[in-house]
Amino acid sequence: MMVRYLGIFLVGCSTLNKETDPNGTVFESEQGDSHILQVGDTTAASYFLRSDKNELVLIDTGGSDNNPVLAQLAAEGATPEDVQKIFLTHAHGNHIGGIHLFPNAEIYALETERNALLEKEIVLDVGLTNHQILSLGNSELEIIAVPGHSMGNAAYRFDDILIMGDSAIASSSSTIEPILSNSDDPILAHDSLIVLKEDVLSRQIEFAYMLFSHSEPLSGIEALLAYE
Predict the structure, then answer these.
(1) Which domains does the chain have, with CATH numbers?
(2) Given a cut of 90, is residue 4 above it in pLDDT?
């Protein structure tokens, strides 16, 4: 398993191989051939979902200025018009500001975030429900409701990689906590992490990585299981 590395630190229990890659950071699934390419930094991270299906799929778009997604598309010989699906974690500007750059993409998010998106003049094409699972080739994308930061805030499980978005932030000591600033309901954000932990325990789910929009990623799931 190889992790390509740029500008962020991976912390956790396992030892990770790293190499420099000018395009971003690659997180490889331990379940198959799928992987995630993270572009941008911890102010506006976006994610390319890579499966055996030849689709251009994003989670979040970052902002509209100096958008790193555009640079990655150009490096691959693709254009913004080639992006087919965009899954949103929530309706804050640093996660949705680049949507207008991708005119042909279908927009997916939790149905409970529809009104917040409409307030930003973004029309949701597909409203998702908690624990809904979509197929991307041979890979699974599960939508997980983690309300609090926004009322329709979502995390996404792509095979064995958990994209937390703004559901939490990781610290250098391998712990996590909810993002309280700019949150609709900080108490609910805390409670939702407890619900997520209990769900992971009850289903005995294992993750190779947890990825966060505004902090370093973590290997494994131990930090979530230790959250109180």
Answers:
(1) 3-225 (3.60.15.10)
(2) no
